[in-house]
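USER: Study each token:
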Amino acid sequence: RCGSVPEKRELSQWYLKITDYAQELLDDLDKLTGWPENVKAQQRNWIGRSEGAEIDFALAAEDGVTPTDRKITVFTTRADTLFGVSFFLLPPESPLAAELVAGTEHEQAFMELKAATEKVSSVDRQGSEREKHGVFTGRYAINPINGRPAPIWVADYVLMDYGTGAVMGVPCGDQRDFDFAKKYGLEIAPIICEKDDPLYEQLKDEKELKVTSVDWDHAMEAEGYLVQSGEFTGMKGGKHSEAVKAIIGWLGERGLGREKVQFRLRDWLISRQRYWGNPIPMIHCDCCGDVPVPYDQLPVTLPDNLDLGAGETLAEYAPFYETTCPKCGKPAKRITDTMDTFTCSSWYYLRYCDPHNDEAPFSKEAVDRWMPVDNYIGGIEHAILHLLYSRFWTKVLRDLGMIDEDEPFTNLLCQGMVKDEHGDVMSKSKGNVVPPSSVIGPYGADTMRLAILFIAPPEKDFDWDPKAVAGANRFIKRAWNIVWQLSRNAEAGEVDHKALKGTAAELFRTLNGMGLKCTSDFDRGQFNTAISAVMEIVNAASKYVNDDTSVRDARLDFRVANDIVAMLAPICPHWAEELYHEALHLTGSVYNEPWPAFDAELAKGDEVEIAVQIKGKVRGRITVAADASDDEMAEAAKAAVADQLAGKDVKKVIVVKGRLVNIVAI
């Protein structure tokens, strides 16, 4: 926003060692059966467990061929491609790279590359479409499996914080290495081919590297078979392949490599250089080093008299940072970094369990009573950091004996975004927000809630539609009228369902069937379909009260009216509470009432309508007894379409209970 070019700087900063929990954080995702799969997939990718090998390359002497005692270790998941190493890569931030070029003809180009790279984010540097840039160091590394020297280059697509900070370049098996080799004229030696590649027939029996250049358009990243790979030629390659295992074993026997599990997850950097946030409770002493603030001096609080108008920060405010060392008593400096705000949001739910405790963050007894959180609702933008940090924080507090839980949140709902009529996410900065008052004013808060929950499943994005609000308002008024009509002659008590006839019996079946569906949908967080189920009940009730031939049942009237109010109460509280008192003449509150009970057996009808098909095409519909046998359904179906079967030979009759009969006739 200020127009400055961001750059990386080396700072002394503070971290939380989340990497110690990487495997447990990964494994315990399988316990989270109530979490969306896409959120768990994002966390798995962020943790990024890779199984591979660490391989030691010897740094060659300045003659480029004589190995020295100095080793450079790389991590790779594709040890099977080791014979295809054409070059060796270091990131521009690498101290080794700076050492290798110091005082040489390559130093100036290296410094220019390093300066340019500092202005590019790590994400952009790794982008497959971005042009790669590199500088040769003038030195070589010795491939441990075949003794071939590989030129050491510095490349801007290599990151210091992944693996060991060094990468073996295999252009035939990695697209980014392929692009780099093409640009700088480096070897692209084929060592893995698909069997349908003409090179496979040419090289399938070659043990030594003879072909060191190939005219491919792209890298052979798929699984294939090794060629020009010594005793491993002919083996199937690819991740977790027999070739990977065999080559790692060969290296291990000779002390040149070892199996290794690597995680993409990095320790959590909590240092922030700003005047707000939680101060990091550490003191730096020139004699004692970094010393924790004594427990009886916690918490460290921010000063309330910083002159922000003058641009003052904690690092410039002597009354805050000037202190004495808790160990030696000499003058010392308080750390002026504050913590990442995720350190607050990673445990607040535990404080909610015991919010008035002034002796501790929370008591174990309170947390044991309330945790874990049953239903956690939050945006998908928190799928990784906030939720991952909360899981990590919970496990740390468990290991400290402060809580017993392994995971903080049992069920997770990531709500969708509301978009405008053009499909853009609503944002104050875009000025495309619909003020709630514009809906509440003409329609009321209950209509707004109903419209928002009915327009789409809660986890889906949706475009705001004023027509949906009007439709929700029409329904809420219709439901209001139905409840009042039912309540006029209503009587509380048990419904005698066996005595119900016609539309009354149909209404009672609908009430139980849709009531079960509404209950299930609420439990699953599918509020839009829960509302649809109540709409079905309202439709059936409307048919019942407006049917001149219907025999009204006072207890059924009360039951249906009461259940409609109860099922809409979580969504339309004002509407429900008023009907509860004024229409149903009940005391107290609808929210103190139990949820209505429904019976699956009573949801079954005496008769069902089924489709009659001839060779898969619907030719009619019939009504049969709900408990009719297959033979009875078949005979009724044939009778219903007898004129269409005239002159045909019925070869087969397929009965799907309660749904259809399909007749195969020629």
Remarks:
- The mean pLDDT is 91.
- The first strand starts at residue 15 and ends at 16.
